[in-house]
Amino acid sequence: MELRAPVVVTESQGVCCLAKRINFQAAMAAFHVLKIQNIYECYNTIKELGQGSYGKVVLAQERSTGKAVAAKLVRKDRTLLKAFLTEFSFSITLSEHPHIITTYPVFIRTINHYVLSQELAAAGTLHDIIQSEVGIPEATVKRCARQISSALDYMHTRGLVHRDLKSDNVLLMDEDCYQVKLSDFGLTQPTGYFVLSMSHTIPNMSPELCKLKEGEYLLLSPTTDCWAFGVLLFVALTGYFPWFEATKNDSMYQVYSHWRKCPDCIPPPACWKLLSSEAICMFDNLLSQCPCSRQSVLSIFNYFNFLWKPNV
User: Fold this and answer.
1) Which 8-state DSSP code applies to residue 125?
2) Residue 226 contacts residue 145 (beta carbons within 8 Å)
3) Are 105 and 34 in contact (CB under 8 A)?
4) Alpha carbon of 287 to those of 14, 141, 146, 151, 215: distances in Å?
5) pLDDT tens, position by position, for the chain (312 residues)?
6) Could you give phi then psi for residue 93, rounded to 5 degrees?
7) Catalytic hit among 77, 128, 153, 164
8) C-alpha to C-alpha distance for 299 and 308, rounded to whole angstroms
9) Geometric angle at alpha carbon 90, from 27 and 64, rounded to 5°
10) Is 105 helix (H, G, I), strand (E, B) or coil?
11) What is the Cα–Cα distance from 288 to 230, expressed in whole angstroms?
């Protein structure tokens, strides 16, 4: 086992300045880097919890303590060490917030993977409990919304943008969502970071990101998280995605855009008829097509005393 000083990621000048601003060294403390042949030397793996292009997350038990953790195995052939250390550093720094998943200050290097371990969310993800075309009860959505918005605001006030907010990345500590935690900081970057176009779009992606062409870039802003937060809340409330991508090629998005430009002349799309006028106003604040007009994630606190789905 090799003991090393805390990592301060210096991938770019922006990240370096961020590290100074939020004091990574004080937040992270010392951590161990363990070099082993494979993960089974440290963990008894029980089952797979999730998988993606980067690697996978498994339920594991520490051999030394018997403690159950979620171990994230990041493939070396698809992830640079700098990128892994960036995620690791951000994850540890943010762990002190009660609604952000705790990352333990140890990481492992195997032949094929970088491995970090986190506290286990025994009840799964928000995605697991959203029923298609139904959603989840309004009271449960509001509990989630309070906690997620608090976690996002914590990140935003520290100059960070999550960039991958979706129901899969909201972890449940209990089945009724009295405690939920934001996770997965693999795409997290500082505000003002240059974001390039991506090879694909997803429903949570803001229109300014969707329309980026190859070679173009965008200065990253918390408003991209505000948009994704609005989409996440809509899916949780209704069980529907409002659109597949926020582009002119998506008919559902175009119908929504025309309706919001002239709400008195055009009837709302079917799934939006489920919502109260106050809820629609709340979504307008988060889903403004102009990033500068979007309100912060905390703007939802103005609407908790109103019904969001009055006919349910």
Assistant:
1) B
2) no
3) no
4) 28, 18, 18, 19, 26
5) 232 222 323 233 334 444 444 444 444 444 567 888 889 999 999 999 988 878 899 999 999 999 999 999 999 999 998 899 999 999 999 999 999 999 998 889 999 999 999 999 999 999 999 999 999 999 999 999 999 999 999 999 999 999 999 999 999 999 999 999 999 999 999 999 999 888 788 899 999 999 998 889 999 999 999 999 999 999 999 999 999 999 999 999 999 999 999 999 999 999 999 999 999 999 999 999 999 999 999 999 999 999 999 976
6) -60, -35
7) 164
8) 15
9) 75
10) strand
11) 10
CB 7 within 8 A of CB 90: no
The alpha carbons of the chain give a radius of gyration, in whole angstroms, of 20
| Length of the chain, in residues | 312
Catalytic residue list contains 164: yes
Q: How far, in Å, CA of 20 to CA of 166, rounded?
A: 29
Which secondary structure element, helix H or strand E, spans residue 157, and what is its range?
A: helix 138-157
Look at the block and give the residue holding tokens 């175009």: 254
H or E element, residue 47: strand 43-52
- How, if at all, do strands 31-35 and 103-109 pair? parallel
DSSP β-bridge partners for residue 301: none
Rounded distance between C-alpha atoms, residue 3 and residue 124, angstroms: 33
DSSP letter for each residue of 192-212: TPEEEP-S---TTS-HHHHTP
List the one residue out of 150, 154, 60 whose CA is nearest residue 108.
Answer: 60
Give residue 306's Cα distance to chain centre.
26
Please tell me the pTM assigned to this model: 0.88
Contact 218, 210 (CB under 8 A): no
